[in-house]
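Input.
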Amino acid sequence: MPYDGASESLIASTSETIFTRTFMDVMSQMVFTGHSTLSSAASVLCFLLEVTKSLSGASSSLARQTVISAVHRYARTLIVPASLFRCAKCKVDGDRPYSAVIADGEVLSILRSQSQPLFRVVKDVRVIAIDTSFASVLPLASLRAAVRKSLTSERMGAVRLSKTEFSSLRDLASFVADTPAPHGAGVVVANPMTLQWAASLLFFSYFSLGLTDQAPPPAADSEKADGEDGEDGDTDGEPPGGTRDTIGGRAVNVEAAQAAFAAPIAGGIPAAAAGAAVNGADASPGNAFHVAVPMAEAVGTGLPAIEMRERWRTVRRFLATFLGQPVLGAFAGLDRRRIRALAVKMVRAQQVEEWRRFAVSVESVGIVWPFLRLVGMGVDPDPLMTRAIAELMLHACDVDDVWESEWRRRAPPASIDFEGEWRDTSATKLTAHAAAQPGPPTASRRLGCSSYFLVRADAQAEEVRSGQACPDLAPVRPYITDGKADTVNAARAAKVGADRETLRAMAAKELGEDDCRHKWLTSETFMPGIENFLCPCGVLICFDFLDRAEAPSHVLSSLVQRFPLLRKVV
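Output.
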């Protein structure tokens, strides 16, 4: 499109339509300075023009549509320099241009009927489904869910458990007495039985299981933030009245605990014990509620409420991370070799002085270091507690390599071939690969510009066609897709039609309780939006237009496409 009338602040959209740039410049400033959207800026501008009688002959709504259309046409004539997508402070030369990348999705209400198909150089690489239990300390998703539910008591109240959750935690408690033998000489590796013991010892050092005659509040009431009442209830650590039997505690009586573990769960439990709502304050005689009770004395006694609350937060963060979730990538971006050396020292040492100097490796880990100071470096540390922490750290250090080995064992030949072909890559290699692939012709430039901007104009036309704007980082690999997963998801969506609840239930059944993906249900009217990629300084370095719902796989595919080597932190 020829750019005419620059000296007169005019822009020719068509041979019949000419717009003045006065409103366009004002709207552009409003969008950038007010962090607003084009639609909002146009509404504000046209409203001001109408109330001040500066705009006559049309209503503000009609003027808003006209101004938005004008700015849109004007924007399509601009050449956006690639340097605007470069951070002069963060970017470095090499295969890892940025030390860290922050990705975040943004919803844009673009009508599907007004969008165009995206043309990208893609490669179909099948995703290998590996159960998250493979990377977890606790092997059962139901057991991890029971642990997470027990940690929701922010005010030291009892948390009601279902019969299944109580049974799962009681089975975990049976490992408390199975103290493993010391590691021998050679390489120290955590094994499943040792991890079960470590998880049991740590959890039941701070929580106990019990049967109570009083109905505890629902778990949702315990998740409210602290400080709403101006007081904190952490100093009240007594279990609820009517408790008939408890399991757990720092000083666990192994013989008594074993007898309690062997006892069957009491029959005749009311519906409330299975998770139903309780309206009355007390249970009827003969009824019982399964509960998990945090023990305030486990983190110290006679402490101020603020310090007590902070100690319990430290405990809950550590237990939720290592027991309630998969630990895959728990130490990503850190020196795992030094962390492993610390864990080995902790496993074999009897005194804190033997491993204290190695603890510098976890001082930057906000979950491990506070808990280690609280439990393992106190006045009278328990060697078994120290060893239990070390066993979990050993597992977290090794699980990434084990997970990769499992992926290589299950991966189809096509995935292995893709890794070998594109491990060493460059923009020139991708260009040659794209030229050999069948597909639509190269995007044609529709901007009339000087020879100085020809290269950038061609690249910008390709960005519009592909929906990927990353001017300062040339693509070095094809965009990874998973054709099988897309086909399965499309079939499920077609099967259930408009019944979204059924679709959510099917997704939950297939993906499991530990799935962390965003809901991949898409609107039939609007496109999903865009994915933004920023450097640590907050400069936008790239954005992708989404043709399906946001998911971690899209973030990974975009980064693999642009970065020869991925950073350790995304």
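Confidence is low (pLDDT under 50) at residues 220-286, 513-521.
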